[in-house]
């Protein structure tokens, strides 16, 4: 098999390996990766590992044929790729959260006409507030989003939560649920056609174990 | 100077100077556009000539449409208007648009300027469409496209001709086995008819298809209540289905409402085979972004190109929007993507002569060489390093006048020869 598969480092990494293994793919080279970013399995696929948000970039450009990525990243980046399968793991939800107690958002809208939102997911946040008839001012932050409302940078945050523990520890409460997310198998538009047989076979094997 | 002092100096003086150097005096281009330099321009021109040559051998005659049109006219091409495009005002305040697509203007041209031609009308074009780039997708704003449109009787014969001409053009351009996939908007609609999907379900399902999300498609099909048993299973896996003719036979059995479309596609496959073209793959997940397509949709793929090198399909209702209904089908090759896929062209070695001391002193000889298609360029006698200059200009020889005759250096291998006159050089 000559396929190149892009695997996200970070939260989805371990379960991605389990899914690959369950689909019958060799994963040994991925177990002791160290600092290596690319490994070729003999008689198997080539794996590349990237930051989760970069997976659709590699797949859309054709640098990887297939990739595993959270739905949150797909909705944020809107890449032109095939979303082939819901792999079922990595379940979490995109939420709008503000400080516990009185929700500051309605007052902000009423008095200032705008709600200030901190998020890594700028496009998702913008679309959510627009679709619910509110004007939002989005502040792009790259990490520790929970900090923003605590220090007055924003009225609240749009972020991905799994258990909600980080929110609670920082005195934030979930106000609105925007969408559910889980890991998806994606394919490059051209690889999906030129490697049709190999891709379809893999999708079938993933699907058998996904649910 | 100690290391810490030099680092300090760098931060105060050097670094700020460096910042000004590359951040300050910029000469930017708008997002998504770029210049084309000589090597690329020559390769793109050669590809374009090859493609238009093949298309003209099928009887397609070139037409050209304007770069700008009235917005409201072009907007008629799409149900909800053409969406994002570069728009501007003319001197009377009317809204103009830079053409974001070439099929719509060609359909307008055929429906208006060629309305009286009995047809079938075969036209080709080589032009650029411009669309604002979407952030982060890497897709350029300018798309160089070479395409054909056939407004004819509306049968499978026309679809097959377009597919065969496309395959021939891609092969001539250097793709040995162009992989063509065809889907059908009409077939998907027929299956949706068979399960009695309501308008909401149709919108959601088409949205899933255009977003290329098999996951969203599968989720939406669960809400279609009439989709049960074998028909339900067919609906759920529809965009994942691909293969050859046997697939169409199977669909026709399960969903009789789609039998006519299946038969038409089968007939198309047979006709394409009769042209000797590679058999297209049937792929029902293939859809186009423009919603004017009404029947077969076509995509062609090549290794090395990150998106389909050619796209097209049948758009029977588009002509009526410009006053003259006429079924039509067409396809366009995106030149930049094809260029990525074909690799470095063979047989285009450097040629031509750089004449040291200027060609003006040997006007007759230079003119004779130019007349035979050999580039001749003059350079001043005092020019330092004419060989290097010849290399950068894609010229193969440097000719220097000697007391009698010429010394000629082939810059590709450094071999020098002596000749009596320019008329008898190795370039002849």
Describe this structure in words.
The complex is a heterodimer of chains A (211) and B (428). Chain A has helices at 13-22, 28-31, 55-61, 71-77, 104-112, 122-131, 147-150, 165-169, 191-194, 196-210; strands spanning 4-8, 38-40, 46-50, 66-70, 82-86, 92-99, 115-119, 136-140, 156-161, 172-181, 183-187. Chain A is an alpha/beta fold. Chain A has two domains: 4-91 and 182-210, Periplasmic binding protein-like II (D-Maltodextrin-Binding Protein, domain 2), CATH 3.40.190.10; 92-180, D-Maltodextrin-Binding Protein, domain 2. In chain A, strand 2 and strand 3 (46-50) form a beta hairpin. The relative contact order of chain A is 0.21. Mean pLDDT of chain B is 88; it is low at 1-5. Helix content of chain B is 38%, strand content 19%. In chain B, a hairpin with a 5-residue loop joins strand 16 and strand 17 (416-419). Chain B has helices at 3-24, 38-57, 71-75, 103-112, 156-172, 185-194, 199-210, 214-221, 229-237, 245-254, 259-274, 335-342, 363-371, 386-392; strands at 61-62, 68-70, 87-89, 95-98, 121-130, 142-151, 179-184, 242-243, 281-283, 296-301, 310-314, 328-334, 353-356, 376-379, 397-401, 406-410, 416-419. Chain B has three domains: 31-176 and 302-346, 2-Layer Sandwich (BirA Bifunctional Protein, domain 2); 179-290, no CATH class; 353-424, Rossmann fold.
Which architecture of the largest domain in chain A does the CATH hierarchy give at level 2? 3-Layer(aba) Sandwich
User: Over the alpha carbons, how many angstroms does the gyration radius of chain A reach?
Assistant: 19 Å
Sheet-strand content of chain A, in percent, reads 25-35%
The overall average pLDDT of chain B, rounded, is 88
Shape of chain A: elongated
Q: What is the CATH third-level topology name of the largest domain in chain B?
A: BirA Bifunctional Protein, domain 2
